[in-house]
């Protein structure tokens, strides 16, 4: 063997052996904090006492004098302190972007969509999206959409399950399909028709689900190297992610091209895509924008609607007050004639108790339980916590909804009244105390729409049906992911209300 060849092989051998060793050393340094919290994190021993990681974090945050903690092995600072939340989301917003780490995790799926970018691209999309979402016509379009999906699909489907208490079904699955149909019609003007349980989920919905799930799983690997290497080799979950993302992008691309062909200049169908087409020419960018909207508005809605039915399951008095309020504002529904009375947009705004119930449910079960940023530069938080650049800084709406220091000693109780003043009018709270929709500069753009949709769905269901939750029977456990979903779903029994006549009880708000 020639000398250069031999030297090359020797070098290759040394690199092959030393690289993994070096990697192990680095990981060991980070993963070897032996404090109690880091040990519990590393060994998952917290799971012996808490049903979910978020419940353990809540426990730690409650015990912390600053309401901020740091988990060394994952370089993660977590806070439930409203003053710190305001610091991150508003006062020092520019120091706490989503960051490249986050963008890389979701990049193959979301590309340059609003959810996944910072800087100019984010502000461009935010500016256009907020003027579109704020417009009266898109608000009406969204509202009509929801009403039609409820009337033509949701209620008939639920009716088909009622009649006999023996036909249990997963309400969370129904809401997932409902919100997918809804957000696709809103974003694309394209109806995937998923809310037919006899049909498999559409190829688009399936691929979307898988891509979102596998992207979220990237964040759970011990080191980003793990998924990056799998990605280069195109194996396992990374190969499936690549395939699922390709299906989503191809179908979204088809929808865009078809719309372009059918479109008359100056006239659009009211959906978000048509509106963005007026100001964005680049097809890939358009596709990314719309995919982000689907992600933003789909799982969050399904999770939120599932949670409220879990919370009101043992609270007949809350259901009764919602029904009474509706009867007062819109009149009694004539169920004998089979008619469903939907509230108008303005009537919905008058339903303060319903609004309070929705906010209260989101307080205890926020669909986005935690949200991360990455510190660009060293900083000191208002509670004195030092933050090194590159640290992941997380605010935790789930824990915040359970802090006595924020909501008082009855913080674990579902009590819509805490949102009402003495006259029964809904009163909003400081958004940094309640960052369920984030808050500050990047506050959720679909917040109003989400509240209207939730109110409409909850009202339509409780006016028509009695719902009994069968499973889970006690604690809720969540699946890990970007959005909180009940592990195993929410199994319910449903019965059409027999007392269809006018409600005689006085509405006492
Ligand atoms: C209960 C339902 C919803 C909840 C709890 C919720 C919550 C959130 C949260 C926490 C964020 C910040 C995420 C982050 O930056 O990492 C966010 C952002 C966003 N949401 Fe929502 N959302 C809901 C429904 C919707 C709906 C229905 C839409 C629109 C159709 C929507 C559109 C958006 C958009 C566009 C952003 C990105 C804003 C930006 O980065 O500037 N959301 N939402």
What would a concise description of this structure say?
The chain folds into 2 domains: 1-32; 96-366 and 401-496, Cytochrome P450 (Cytochrome p450, Orthogonal Bundle).
Question: What are its keywords?
Answer:
single chain, 509 residues, alpha+beta, Cytochrome p450, 4-stranded mixed sheet, globular, Cyt_P450_E_grp-I, membrane
What is the strand and helix layout of this fold?
Blueprint: H1 3-31, H2 36-43, H3 53-63, E1 68-71, E2 76-79, H4 82-91, H5 99-110, H6 119-133, H7 136-161, E3 169-170, H8 171-188, H9 203-218, H10 224-233, H11 236-262, H12 272-277, H13 283-311, H14 316-330, H15 345-349, H16 352-364, E4 371-374, E5 379-380, E6 386-387, E7 392-395, H17 397-400, H18 404-407, H19 447-464, E8 465-471, E9 478-479, E10 485-486, E11 491-496
Protoporphyrin IX containing FE (HEM) is lined by residues 114-115, 126, 129, 293, 296-297, 300-301, 304, 367-368, 371, 436-438, 442, 444-446, 449-450.
């Amino acid at each position: 063997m020639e000398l250069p060849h031999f030297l090359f092989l020797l070098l290759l051998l040394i690199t092959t052996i030393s690289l993994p060793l070096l990697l192990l050393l680095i990981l060991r340094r980070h993963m070897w904090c032996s404090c109690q919290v880091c040990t519990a994190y590393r060994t998952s021993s917290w799971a012996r006492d808490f049903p979910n990681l978020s419940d353990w974090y809540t426990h730690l945050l409650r015990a912390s004098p600053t309401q901020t903690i740091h988990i060394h092995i994952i370089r993660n600072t977590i806070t439930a302190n409203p003053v710190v939340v305001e610091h991150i989301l508003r006062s020092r917003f520019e120091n706490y972007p989503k960051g490249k780490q986050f963008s890389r995790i979701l990049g193959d799926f979301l590309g340059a969509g609003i959810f996944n970018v910072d800087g100019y691209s984010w502000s461009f999309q935010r500016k256009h999206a907020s003027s579109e979402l704020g417009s009266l016509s898109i608000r009406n379009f969204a509202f009509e959409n929801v009403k039609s999906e409820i009337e033509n699909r949701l209620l008939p489907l639920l009716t088909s399950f009622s009649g006999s208490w023996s036909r249990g079904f997963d309400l969370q699955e129904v809401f997932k399909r409902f919100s997918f149909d809804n957000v696709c019609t809103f974003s694309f003007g394209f109806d995937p028709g998923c809310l037919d349980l006899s049909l498999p989920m559409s190829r688009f919905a399936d691929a979307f689900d898988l891509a979102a799930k596998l992207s979220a799983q990237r964040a759970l690997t011990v080191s980003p190297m793990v998924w990056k290497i799998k990605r280069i080799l195109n194996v396992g979950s990374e190969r499936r992610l690549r395939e699922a993302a390709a299906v989503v992008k191809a179908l979204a691309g088809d929808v865009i091209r078809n719309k372009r062909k059918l479109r008359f200049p100056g006239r659009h169908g009211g959906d978000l895509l048509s509106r963005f087409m007026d100001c964005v020419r680049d097809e890939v960018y358009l596709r990314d924008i719309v995919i982000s909207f689907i992600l933003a508005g789909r799982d969050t809605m399904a999770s939120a609607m599932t949670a409220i039915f879990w919370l009101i399951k043992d609270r007949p008095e809350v259901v009764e007050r919602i029904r009474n309020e509706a009867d007062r504002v819109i009149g009694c529904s004539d169920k004998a004639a089979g008619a469903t009375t939907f509230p108008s947009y303005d009537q919905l705004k008058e339903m303060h108790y319903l609004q309070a119930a929705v906010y209260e449910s989101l307080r205890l079960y926020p669909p986005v339980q935690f949200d991360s940023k990455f510190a660009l530069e060293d900083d000191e938080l208002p509670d004195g916590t030092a933050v090194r650049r590159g640290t992941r800084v997380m605010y935790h709406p789930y824990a915040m909804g359970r802090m006595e220091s924020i909501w008082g000693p009855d913080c674990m109780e579902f009590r819509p009244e805490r949102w009402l003043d003495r006259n029964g009018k809904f009163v909003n709270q400081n958004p940094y105390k309640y960052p369920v929709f984030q808050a500050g500069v990047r506050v959720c753009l679909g917040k109003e729409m989400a509240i209207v949709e939730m109110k409409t769905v909850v009202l339509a269901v409780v006016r028509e049906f009695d719902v009994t939750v069968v499973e889970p029977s006690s604690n809720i456990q969540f699946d890990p992911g970007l959005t909180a979903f009940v592990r195993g779903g929410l199994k319910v029994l449903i019965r059409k209300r027999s007392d269809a006549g006018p409600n005689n009880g006085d509405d006492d708000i």
